[in-house]
Write a sequence for this structure.
């Protein structure tokens, strides 16, 4: 009898312990589902970004799953900590509705993570990034954000999000969450309530080490696509949401401030030295044509595809083409601020959306207005997008024309067809007071490149891109042919430049020099004949436009300290650009791209020229540091 009683007591104890273990089994199953979810989402990211995986060995691609594991565990730790803390009352008694609340919390996380996953896929496709504060800033313009991708692509991504949500919520529902947790040894339940959250905290901070996990843990490769794949999307979103909206300190503090300032001053001397004059008149009209998303890869004289932009090729015979010109960034507003204010793009923010900052920038428009120029801006879409109208007004434009300025017959989601925009300018320019500064911003070649125009290119995304470029090119050629018949053209200097490049048609990496190389052509009736049909290999970027123009007009330009006169032979020229948490710098000797997340060079033109690589790397770090110092100081 004694033996049977002892046996019964032992069985009862095991039963109580097993009930305490019910929660441990439940939470372990949830952890497995979360890690499986992250693995699946990462594989989806890689699958959709397969073009960026070209020439990367399969073993390296698969290695990103291993490198992603610490951040996956950290993200799961956050979710499990919340679920565990909510479940603590269930260790001591049943609480109506609490189990359901925990289940809904976990299901909601799965749904949100699926949406974030496909948003990251779309962002990488367009910008080569995952969600960051710059991307979140565009949520103020949802129509334009949706307009940046095709309905088919959007529908596919939403379907992918729905299917993965259904599958992983189905797995979550298979876990038995109804077993009791509140029986068993009281000390064991208390210990579980204390120790399990502690384990979650250790997991979410990446281990017991002094410094918690950070984004750099995912940066292990010289291939950004692999680093981004290893970066857990939900962990990244949480960091973006909790980080300050503005910089409190410079995130690119590479060297002592005095040294950085000295290097930047040395690279941007105040005097540009002697330079030839290319004008036939002292005060010409200035027409700046900003071409949406044009890359050097479709410009035949720049070594690009043949037959995509034949009119631009023809126009090159009537002007001077710069063969090493680069965009400052990868968004229209970045190129616009650099062209008008001579201010380079920033890696993770955009100054045009910061009231109190952009109005402190210099303006080539104000400088021209002070000498008698009238200034007009022409755009066939919504000029308020990305704070553009506020910036343009602050820069001193006399008149801003947008989609409300003229009747529109045909339009894309971004505005009237370029043909209508050019025709409107031709009508308006007849009454413009000379000298004038006119800026025309095209839009038909904006992604997703689905304008209903048939230019002989169809099929893939690359072909759709070529199709809209060919359309804008045709409109550009017809516009300038008509402009030559106008009385104002003979006294006009015309600048034709892209606002930024694009990864299409050859799927170039977001950080690369090829991604940022764009056409820049100077033509017009006011250009001296000896410059027509010439090529200039000088390295430059958007920020060089203000000092180049003002130098030709004989106007002082010390306020545009980031740029150089492209025609100055006494100045060392180069091109500087930024991408998400990184920069590129190129000159005639070398080019480098530096990833600040991983702290490494990820592109190099010539590995044998180590001294030039080190020189550009040091110079680029100094520029990025000083650029952010200036950006922060605008608030002070």
């Amino acid at each position: 009898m004694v033996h049977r009683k002892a046996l019964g007591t032992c069985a009862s104890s095991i039963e109580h312990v097993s009930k305490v273990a019910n929660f441990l089994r439940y939470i372990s199953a949830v952890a497995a589902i979360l890690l499986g979810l992250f693995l699946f989402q990462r594989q989806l990211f890689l699958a959709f970004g397969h073009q960026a995986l070209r020439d990367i060995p399969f073993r390296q691609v698969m290695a990103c799953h291993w490198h992603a594991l610490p951040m996956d565990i950290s993200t799961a730790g956050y979710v499990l900590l919340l679920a565990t803390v909510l479940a603590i009352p269930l260790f001591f008694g049943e609480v109506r509705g609490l189990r359901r609340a925990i289940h809904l919390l976990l299901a909601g996380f799965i749904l949100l993570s699926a949406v974030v996953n496909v948003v990251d896929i779309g962002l990488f496709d367009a910008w080569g990034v995952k969600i960051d504060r710059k991307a979140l800033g565009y949520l103020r313009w949802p129509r334009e954000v949706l307009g940046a991708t095709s309905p088919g692509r959007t529908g596919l991504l939403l379907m992918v999000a729905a299917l993965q949500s259904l599958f992983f919520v189905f797995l979550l529902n298979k876990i038995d969450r109804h077993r009791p947790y509140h029986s068993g040894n009281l000390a064991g339940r208390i210990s579980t309530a204390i120790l399990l959250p502690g384990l979650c905290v250790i997991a979410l901070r990446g281990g017991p080490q002094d410094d918690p996990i950070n984004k750099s843990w995912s940066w292990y490769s010289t291939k950004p696509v692999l680093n981004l794949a290893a970066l857990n999307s939900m962990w990244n979103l949480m960091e973006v949401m909790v980080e300050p909206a503005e910089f409190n300190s410079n995130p690119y503090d590479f060297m002592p401030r005095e040294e950085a300032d000295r290097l930047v001053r040395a690279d941007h001397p105040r005097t540009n030295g002697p330079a030839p004059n290319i004008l036939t008149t002292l005060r010409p009209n200035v027409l700046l044509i900003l071409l949406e998303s044009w890359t050097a890869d479709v410009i035949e004289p720049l070594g690009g595809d043949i037959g995509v932009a034949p009119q631009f090729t023809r126009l090159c015979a009537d002007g001077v083409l710069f063969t090493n010109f680069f965009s400052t960034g990868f968004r229209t507003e970045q190129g616009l601020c650099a062209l008008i204010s001579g201010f380079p793009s920033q890696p993770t923010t955009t100054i045009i959306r910061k009231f109190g900052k952009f109005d402190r920038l210099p303006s080539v428009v104000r400088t021209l207005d002070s000498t008698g120029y009238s200034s007009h801006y022409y755009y066939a879409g919504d000029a308020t997008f990305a704070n553009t109208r506020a910036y343009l007004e602050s820069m001193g434009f006399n008149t801003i024309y947008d989609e409300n300025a003229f009747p529109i017959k045909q339009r894309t989601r971004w505005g009237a067809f370029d043909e209508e925009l050019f025709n409107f300018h031709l009508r308006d320019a007849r009454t413009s007071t000379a000298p004038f500064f006119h800026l025309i911003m095209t839009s038909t070649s904006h992604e997703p490149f689905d304008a209903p125009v048939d230019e002989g290119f169809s099929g893939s995304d690359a072909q759709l891109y070529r199709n809209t470029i060919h359309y804008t090119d045709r409109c550009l050629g017809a516009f300038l042919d008509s402009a030559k018949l106008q009385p104002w053209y003979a006294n006009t200097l015309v600048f034709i430049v892209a606002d930024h490049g694009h990864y299409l048609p050859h799927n170039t990496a977001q950080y690369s020099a090829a991604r940022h190389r764009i056409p820049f052509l100077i033509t017009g009736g006011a250009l001296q004949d000896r410059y027509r049909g010439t090529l200039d290999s000088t390295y430059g970027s958007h920020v060089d436009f203000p000092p180049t123009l003002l130098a030709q007009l004989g106007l002082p330009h010390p306020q545009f300290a980031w740029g150089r006169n492209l025609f100055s032979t006494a100045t060392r020229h180069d091109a500087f650009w930024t991408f998400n948490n990184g920069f590129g710098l190129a000159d005639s000797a070398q080019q480098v791209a530096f990833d600040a997340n991983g702290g490494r060079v990820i592109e190099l033109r010539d590995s044998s020229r180590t001294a030039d690589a080190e020189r550009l790397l040091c110079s680029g770090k100094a520029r990025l540091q000083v650029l952010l110092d200036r950006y922060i100081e605008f608030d002070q």
In short: The chain has 19 helices and 14 strands. Residues 1-18 have pLDDT under 50 and may be disordered. Residues 267 and 602 are 23 Å apart (CA to CA).
